[in-house]
C-alpha cells in the first residue's frame, strides 16, 4: 500500500515511509514518519510537531553512509533544500551551500566556474550537508580544509547556530557532529575555495592515471577526470550493486603496534599519520583474512574492493550487519586489530 503523503508547504510528511530507495545499500526498512524538508526556515515548526518531538530523529541525505539493520521508530528528516550563495573577491570564492544539494553536482559546478580545490573529492555520493559529518575525504584531500563554518539547527538549544571550523573538531572520518549524533541538523555549509591552488597528486595512482591520459601539465579538471577513472575502476557503483563505499574506517594504531604488525606481516599496507601513529589499510586486513569476495546469501564483501560490503540483491540490513560483525571478529582474531564501521548503523 502506498504511504500517505501530506504536503505542508516547505515540507512533506509521509507516515510509515519506505526507505529502500533512500539508502544506497538498497536495504528495505521503514520509518515511523518521514519529513522531506525543502525550506529550512520551516524546521522549527516541523520539529515542534508532537509526533516529531517524541523522537528519535534521524537526519538523512542520500543514505550513502547508513545501514538500516532494522526499521527506524522515529522521524527521518530528509534534507532536500537547495541553493548556493556566492561571494567572490577574485582570489577566494566563498560559497554558502544548502544541505540538500548533491555533493558531486556541487564539485562539478565549482570546477566549471574555474574554482579549484574540490577536484580530488569528485564522485563521492551524498549531499553537501552530510560532507562535514564524517569530514569526507579521498585521494589525499579532506573537505574540512575548505570548510569555513557550518550552519545548523541545534536541537538542544532550539536555535540556529554557526559552528566555525575549530568548533567542528574535524578529524579522519570524524567531527563534532559524529560525536554528538542527533543534536545538529546541518542546514548549510560555508566553503572558502581558492581560485588557484597547488594540485594534490601524491595519492597512489593519480600521477600514473594522468600519464595514461597523456596529460603532463594537469589542471584541476584533469585531476578530476583521473580520479573519476580511478574510482570507477576500484569501487562498485551503487546504481548497479547496493553498497555504502568503505564499510570500515582504516584503523589507526600506535607506532609500536604498527611496527610489530609490519614485522609479522611484511606485506601489510600502512601509512604514517601526522601525529606519529600508524594507519592500517582495512582493505588489506580484510583481504588477508581471506574475506574478499566472501558471500553469505545476498550479503557480501565486494570482489573488487575488500572494504566494501555489497547487497547482491535481497540482503536484509540485519544480514549485512551480521556479515560486518563476522568481518570485525575475523580481522580481530587474525591481527588483533578491531575494525570500526564507517556508516551509521541503525537498529543493530
Ligand atoms: P547519509 O548517508 O544520508 O548520512 C550519513 C550521516 O550523516 C548520518 O549520520 C546522517 O544522520 C548524517 N547527516 C546527513 N545529512 C545531515 C545533515 N544535513 N545534518 C546532520 N546530519 C546529517 N565517503 C568518503 O568520505 N570518501 C569517499 O571516497 C567515499 N566514497 C564513497 C563511495 C560510494 C560508492 C559510496 C556509496 C559512499 C562513499 N562514501 C565516501 C560515503 C558517503 O558518500 C559520504 O559519507 C557522504 O557524505 C554521505 O552523504 P549522504 O547525504 O548520503 O549522507
Ligand atoms: N587494498 C587491498 N585490497 C583491496 C583494496 C585495496 O589490499 O581489495 C589495499 C591496496 O594496497 C591499496 C590500499 O588498500 O593500495 C588502499 O586502497 P584505496 O586506495 O582504495 O583506499 P582505501 O584506504 O581502501 C580510502 C577511503 C575511501 C577513499 C579512498 C581514496 C577510508 C575508510 N576509505 O579507502 O573512502 O575513496 O581511500 O582516497 O578511509 C569511503 O569512505 O566510503 C571511501 C570510499
TrEMBL record:
Pathway: Cell wall biogenesis; peptidoglycan biosynthesis. Its EC number is 1.3.1.98. One of its GO terms (molecular function) is FAD binding. Keywords: Cell cycle, Cell division, Cell shape, Cell wall biogenesis/degradation, Cytoplasm, FAD, Flavoprotein, NADP, Oxidoreductase, Peptidoglycan synthesis. Its cofactor is FAD. It comes from the Bacteria. This is UDP-N-acetylenolpyruvoylglucosamine reductase. The gene is murB.
Amino acid at each position: 500500500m502506498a504511504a500517505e503523503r501530506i504536503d505542508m508547504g516547505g515540507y512533506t510528511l509521509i507516515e510509515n515511509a519506505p526507505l529502500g530507495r533512500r539508502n544506497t545499500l538498497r536495504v528495505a526498512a521503514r520509518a515511523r514518519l518521514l519529513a522531506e524538508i525543502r525550506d529550512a526556515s520551516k524546521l522549527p515548526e516541523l520539529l515542534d510537531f508532537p509526533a516529531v518531538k517524541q523522537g528519535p530523529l534521524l537526519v538523512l541525505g542520500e543514505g550513502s553512509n547508513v545501514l538500516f539493520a532494522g526499521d527506524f521508530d522515529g522521524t527521518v528528516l530528509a534534507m532536500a533544500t537547495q541553493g548556493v550563495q556566492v561571494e567572490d573577491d577574485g582570489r577566494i570564492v566563498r560559497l554558502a551551500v544548502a544541505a540538500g544539494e548533491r555533493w558531486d553536482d556541487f564539485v562539478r559546478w565549482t570546477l566549471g566556474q574555474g574554482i579549484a580545490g574540490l577536484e580530488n573529492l569528485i564522485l563521492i555520493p551524498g549531499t553537501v550537508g552530510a560532507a562535514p559529518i564524517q569530514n569526507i575525504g579521498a585521494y589525499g584531500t579532506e573537505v574540512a580544509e575548505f570548510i569555513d563554518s557550518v550552519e545548523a539547527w541545534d536541537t538542544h538549544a532550539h536555535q540556529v547556530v554557526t559552528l566555525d571550523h575549530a568548533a567542528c573538531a574535524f578529524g579522519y572520518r570524524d567531527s563534532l557532529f559524529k560525536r554528538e549524533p542527533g543534536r545538529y541538523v546541518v542546514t548549510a555549509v560555508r566553503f572558502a575555495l581558492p581560485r588557484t591552488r597547488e594540485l594534490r597528486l601524491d595519492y597512489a595512482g593519480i600521477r600514473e592515471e594522468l600519464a595514461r591520459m597523456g596529460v603532463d601539465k594537469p589542471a584541476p579538471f584533469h585531476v578530476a577526470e583521473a580520479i573519476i577513472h580511478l574510482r570507477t575502476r576500484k569501487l562498485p557503483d551503487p546504481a548497479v550493486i547496493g553498497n555504502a563505499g568503505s564499510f570500515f574506517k582504516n584503523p589507526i594504531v600506535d607506532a609500536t603496534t604498527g611496527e610489530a604488525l609490519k614485522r609479522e606481516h611484511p606485506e601489510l599496507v600502512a601509512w604514517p599519520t601526522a601525529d606519529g601513529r600508524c594507519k592500517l589499510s582495512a582493505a588489506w586486513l580484510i583481504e588477508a583474512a581471506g574475506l574478499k569476495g566472501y558471500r553469505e546469501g545476498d550479503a557480501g564483501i565486494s570482489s573488487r574492493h575488500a572494504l566494501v560490503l555489497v547487497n547482491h540483491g535481497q540482503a536484509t540490513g540485519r544480514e549485512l550487519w551480521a556479515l560486518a560483525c563476522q568481518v570485525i571478529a575475523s580481522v580481530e582474531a587474525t591481527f588483533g586489530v578491531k575494525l570500526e564501521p564507517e556508516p551509521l548503523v541503525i537498529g543493530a
